[in-house]
Amino acid sequence: MEQAGVDATAISVFERQVEQVQAGVSTMIYDADVGPWESPQLDVLEVDDSLVAQTAMIRLNGGLGTSMGMNRAKSLLPVTDELSFLDIIARQVLSTRSHYNAGIPLTFLHSFRTSADCLAALAQHDGIENAAMKLAGVPLELMQNQEPKLLADELTPVEWPAEPELEWCPPGHGDLYTVLHASGLLAKLLEAGYRWLFVANSDNLGARVTAEMVSWFAGCGAPFALEAVRRSKSDRKGGHFVTRRSDGRLVLRESAQTPPEEVDASQRYGYSSTNNLWLDIADVNDLLAEQGGDMHLPIIVNRKTVDPSDATSLAVVQLETAMGAAVESFQGATTVEIGRDRFIPVKTTNDLLVVRSDCYRLTDDNSLVQDSAQTPFVELSAAYKVIHDFDARFPAGPPSLIDARSLIVRGDWTFGEGVTVVGDVELGLEGGAIPDGAVLDGSEARS
């Protein structure tokens, strides 16, 4: 890690994490130790547009979409025929700056695998650079640290001569705090007069800076807040909020920290994390200074193969942390319940099919607006998991899902042009081709 130029604080954090895992420290959070959390609702007495000018934004853009078999930035995936996630984010930020006449600094947190391609794509958007707003000290890019993937059995660095880059991985988005500390970005923002920082994933096109949200955060007085949504069937794998019984602190429990035997029981906890964060820049900067850049976040042990596109390659573990877990580090931290219009995540090809469908529409101000009355539940078979295979099965584009409640595909089906799904539809294991213009009507199944 030293030879690769990794920041000294990041190395120290990684060493501590390895020692904890080697010692067998449990990474699980058990039901017996936590209770439910009731999230406050979004309640803004007065919206102050001027507060937007004191707000900065970071978008997490280090993900490769490995769960979809990708080896490049997931944000470069097309959402429409012409625009990728990254294109839409850039347009949204430019629209927001223009709407509020505010210089909102934008920084992307990239990994060593996403930086070059994404910077090249962003260069196509005139005015996106912070320097264009005389904010030369605020970079458009910060780099995530990198750490070795570890052999699952030995917890020693894996060797993969065929592609040495695959020996490394980013340490999860909890690395944000170490990066912020090392870069001095928070101090730069404070010096420039910024008070609040909004952080969100690049695969969530509902996450935008608005005067309503900034006014809420400024008014609530919390040092740290997370946007929360009521859990749905599609949120089974997301983090959820609980209260730690020992001290009453708000805790974010990720799915990887939920014991397998308690996954079903965990559905009774009503709120999921959107990973949309609001930070008081001064409070976070002070805490990081006190703790030497180490937020001491809970460890997540992520089990994968060294080559994510080859299930037969060596089994490895990646030690990760979640940035939302920092909520327990701040006295007075809170959540706020928001609508699904601010939470449109794409973690799998199931989600991608919905976002690409007619359920959503891109408006003139580059907002992604839901036209369907509800978000349909989509569950595709393993034949659709990898993006190349997924695209091949929708050669003429996604089916219409605007009137669908659910689409469950058990087998391997190829969809023709102009297919419409209505109500609750399930396609069987036999697979086949769905002809052009077909209407799959399951509306009577639950009538």
Short structural description:
With 447 residues, this protein is α/β, with parallel strands linked by helices.
Word description of this protein:
- By secondary structure, the chain is an alpha/beta fold.
- The protein folds into 2 domains: 335 residues, Spore Coat Polysaccharide Biosynthesis Protein SpsA, Chain A (Alpha-Beta Complex); 94 residues, Hexapeptide repeat proteins (UDP N-Acetylglucosamine Acyltransferase, domain 1, 3 Solenoid).
- A hairpin with a 5-residue loop joins strand 16 and strand 17.
- Helix 5 crosses helix 7.
- The protein starts with 7 loop residues before the first helix and ends in a 5-residue tail after the last strand.
- The relative contact order is 0.15.
What percent of the residues sit in helical stretches (DSSP H or I)?
Answer: 10-25%
- The whole-angstrom Rg is 22 Å
Based on the coordinates given, report the CATH architecture of the largest domain: Alpha-Beta Complex
Query: Number of folding domains?
Result: 2
Regions with little confidence, pLDDT below 50 for 5+ residues: none
Which structural class is indicated by helix and strand composition?
A: alpha/beta
- The largest beta-sheet arranges its strands as 4-3-2-8-12-9-15
Query: What distance separates the N and C termini?
Result: 60 Å
The best one-word shape is: globular
Mean pLDDT: 93
CATH class identity of the largest domain: Alpha Beta
Q: Strand portion, in percent?
A: 15-25%
CATH topology of the largest domain: Spore Coat Polysaccharide Biosynthesis Protein SpsA, Chain A
In DSSP terms, counting alpha (H) and pi (I) runs of 4 or more, how many helices?
9
Number of strands: 23
Quick one: biggest sheet? 7 strands, mixed
CATH H-tier superfamily of the largest domain: Spore Coat Polysaccharide Biosynthesis Protein SpsA, Chain A
